[in-house]
Design goal:
mainly alpha
Length: about 150
Amino acid sequence: MVETLTIGQLASAYRNLSRRSDRTAVARSIGLTAPVLESWLQTYVRVRNVCAHHGRLWNVGLGVYPAIPNSPAVSWLEGTDALPERSRKRLYPVLVSLQSVLDSVSPCSSWAKRLHGLLNTRPQMNLAGMGIPNGWADDDFWSRHIT
């Protein structure tokens, strides 16, 4: 059934689970906490809507952002400087959260390689406008998927 839901319907279904234990169990099944998963789902709905309506993701605030996990069990960027403050309100943490989910649900995904290829094969662009720091692909989080 989940495969037929839109991302908005999936986010609503998750948010409307009446028992906290059910939300916790769903989040735990992909290695997250319930508040983090809900935050990420809300962000994915926003990003999907921007894309579906031909909006721009570069150099724009989304209005809703993924919560930054504080558990070392969650796949996330390495080090305290890996996500600069200026990047937190841009697209970059959304990309990180997507890869984090993929680490759990599809560990052999080539998405990170394709993202890296997309960003490296296009004409020179201002990645900082998306919150992507210089040398982003060198972070262990990304490099283990790209190389």
